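Renewal narrative, Specific Aim 1. Our central claim is that a sequence can be written position by position from structural information alone. The example that follows is taken directly from our test logs and has not been curated for this report. It begins with the structure tokens describing the chain, in the order in which they were read.
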């Protein structure tokens, strides 16, 4: 009786409310956070308070190079959003596989190069890009990246990286 109840309580504590999966280290969702904003600070505090057993922050990406190497809520700034592909690859070399990029800045506040880097990351990898302000209803709709015939293959990558038209839309 009492032991069974205790096990059930312990299991409930270790179960994710959102996904219903046990929160063991192998089930942690690893994220990179893009942006150094008040929303970033709120998000990191929320993870610390409510998501410690479900979310692991691999690092932060800040717009200015001067922030690289700095720390926010014990998470290192690894570089700039424009370099997201290289940073993800560098993390993978060290055994850290990123599941999601959480962008805390409005999409329009990112540089064109950062927008294109996030587009490339989402279309070429299985990493999800989430725009937190839009998800929370604080901004307009999040951009929906879409693959078109012009964006597929090397030709599309060359067009996107050479300053061609952005390949995203708002639903």
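The sequence written for that structure reads:
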């Amino acid at each position: 009786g009492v032991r069974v109840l205790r096990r059930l309580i312990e299991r409930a504590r270790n179960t994710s409310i959102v996904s219903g999966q046990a929160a063991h280290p192998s089930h942690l969702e690893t994220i990179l956070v893009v942006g150094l904003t008040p929303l970033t600070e709120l998000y990191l505090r929320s993870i610390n308070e409510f998501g410690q057993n479900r979310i692991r922050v691999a690092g932060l990406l800040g717009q200015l190079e001067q922030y690289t190497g700095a720390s926010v809520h014990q998470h290192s700034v690894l570089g700039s959003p424009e370099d997201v592909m290289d940073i993800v690859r560098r993390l993978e070399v060290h055994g850290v596989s990123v599941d999601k990029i959480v962008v805390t800045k409005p999409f329009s506040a990112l540089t064109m190069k950062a927008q294109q880097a996030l587009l490339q990351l989402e279309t070429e990898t299985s990493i999800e890009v989430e725009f937190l302000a839009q998800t929370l209803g604080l901004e307009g709709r999040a951009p929906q990246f879409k693959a078109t015939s012009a964006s597929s293959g090397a030709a599309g990558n060359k067009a996107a990286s050479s300053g061609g038209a952005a390949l995203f839309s708002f639903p």
